[in-house]
User: Which sequence fits this backbone?
């Protein structure tokens, strides 16, 4: 008791709670005593570098059913709620759900104040849902109006919540942007046309019909939208990067020809002689740059990483000579910077300003000893501020079993200012799901930085996609969407 008397009262309570739940508190680790949890510093979450093996007993979130089941991660003490289950849509049972069917950690899954979120199923159907942030509980919307599907659905794979109005959801349908307004929670909204790319002579070619598209985000003031498009085939065949600016019109870059056409700004040929197909295109929050992820190089030698188009100009650049290897890896973007995990050293993230891509800053102060492949990370920075000073988040994947270091199959955040890495939860993935998004627990941080939504097969305990309670990992195990509070 003399030892406990030296600890702050809040820490004592957490230690008793940990003991009661069977949590193994690592030797020398004092759980945070601050009652002021959450962004921007996340003082109530762990920052140590000790291994956190999966608990002997995986927290139960139910099987085929279990929406709104809340558990506390026994090693990290942050609450996690199950958002979807096999019965979320009674018309299409047993299906797997995603926080973003596009599989991008840069998708904007949360509305402005974390009161609404948007999830999707493997058929590409979208589900707007309410989120009670104080109780961490979800609900379908307009259930009485859509009894067959258990609530309102939206037929789109490509979406982004507004960054200004918490009730606005933008979706891409073909060549058109639509907006749903959820201000009236009793009457379901109809889609309102915002812009049609086919209507501008300086936008898409006449008669253009997309075979693939990605929604590359909305600027911080809802003043600009970005998309990647292809008329030839699936992801990786794209060649049109499109930015629509409200009140000004369209500007388009063709990565096959290098041509830039615009209703505003410069038209001409992009400054680089590289030609390539698109994997995706994303817009910075200040709308100043579009990030172009290449798939196939069609000219002599392309960059080992994304290209950066200064929107409104013909300036298209990549990381400079001698630095190209440091531009690889998964990445995320803020207002005027982007961060990527390039593997030098392994596990490190680097921050680069778009104005000088060769000037990079390593972010993490101390890496776990022995942190090595196989590990993958998918960062998310929807909570970025104009100074790009807020922490960005990442979910990690490894097949190492048992874990060999910290940060393996965890949800973490990297502080841009201090280099501190905060740890929030296990992802509880088997790492062998037949669904890639569940396999790697890809997820997104909310705009206010309070919640991280992610995908998981929860160690194969969620039933099968054929409706049985048991499943075979890697073959038919269901995946669902979960939310962890970032404290």
Assistant:
């Amino acid at each position: 008791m003399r030892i406990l008397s030296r600890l702050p009262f809040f820490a004592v309570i957490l230690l008793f709670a940990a003991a009661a739940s069977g949590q193994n508190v690592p030797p020398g680790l004092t759980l945070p005593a601050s009652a002021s949890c959450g962004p921007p510093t996340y003082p109530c979450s762990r920052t140590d570098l000790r291994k956190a093996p999966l608990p002997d007993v995986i927290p139960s979130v139910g099987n085929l059913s279990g929406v709104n089941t809340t558990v506390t991660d026994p090693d990290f003490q942050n609450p996690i709620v199950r958002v979807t289950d096999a019965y979320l849509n009674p018309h299409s049972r047993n299906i797997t759900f995603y926080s973003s069917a596009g599989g991008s950690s840069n998708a904007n899954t949360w509305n402005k104040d974390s009161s609404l979120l948007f999830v999707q199923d493997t058929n590409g159907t979208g589900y707007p849902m309410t989120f009670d942030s104080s109780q961490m509980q979800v609900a379908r919307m307009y259930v009485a109006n859509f009894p067959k599907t258990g609530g309102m659905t939206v037929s789109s794979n490509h979406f982004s919540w507004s960054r200004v109005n918490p009730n606005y959801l933008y979706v891409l349908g073909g060549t058109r942007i639509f907006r749903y307004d959820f201000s009236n929670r009793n009457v379901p909204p109809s889609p309102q046309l915002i812009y049609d790319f086919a209507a501008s002579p300086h936008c898409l070619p006449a008669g253009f019909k997309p075979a693939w598209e990605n929604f590359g985000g909305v600027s911080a003031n809802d003043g600009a939208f970005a998309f990647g498009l292809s008329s030839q085939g699936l992801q990786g065949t794209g060649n049109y990067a499109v930015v629509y600016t409200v009140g000004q019109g369209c500007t388009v870059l063709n990565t096959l020809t290098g041509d830039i056409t615009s209703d505003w700004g410069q038209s001409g040929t992009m400054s680089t002689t590289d030609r390539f197909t698109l994997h995706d295109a994303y817009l910075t929050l200040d709308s100043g740059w579009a990030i172009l992820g290449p798939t196939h190089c069609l000219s002599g030698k392309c960059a080992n990483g994304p290209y950066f188009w200064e929107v409104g100009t013909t300036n298209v650049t990549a990381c400079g000579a001698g630095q190209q290897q440091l531009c690889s890896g998964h990445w995320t973007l803020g207002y005027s910077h982007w961060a990527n995990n390039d593997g030098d050293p392994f596990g490190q993230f680097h921050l680069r300003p778009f104005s000088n891509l060769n000037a990079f800053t390593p972010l993490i102060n101390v890496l776990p000893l022995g942190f090595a492949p196989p590990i993958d990370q998918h960062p998310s920075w929807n909570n970025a501020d104009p100074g790009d000073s807020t922490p960005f988040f990442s979910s990690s994947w490894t097949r190492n079993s048992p874990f060999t270091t910290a940060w393996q199959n965890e949800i973490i955040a990297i502080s841009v200012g201090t280099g501190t890495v905060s740890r929030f939860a296990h992802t509880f993935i088997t790492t062998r799901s037949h669904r890639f998004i569940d396999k790697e627990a890809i997820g997104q941080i909310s705009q206010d930085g309070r919640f991280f939504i992610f995908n998981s097969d929860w160690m194969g305990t969620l039933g099968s996609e054929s409706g049985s309670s048991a499943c075979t990992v890697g073959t038919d195990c269901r995946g669902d969407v979960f939310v962890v509070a970032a404290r």
Notes: The two ends are 28 Å apart (CA to CA).
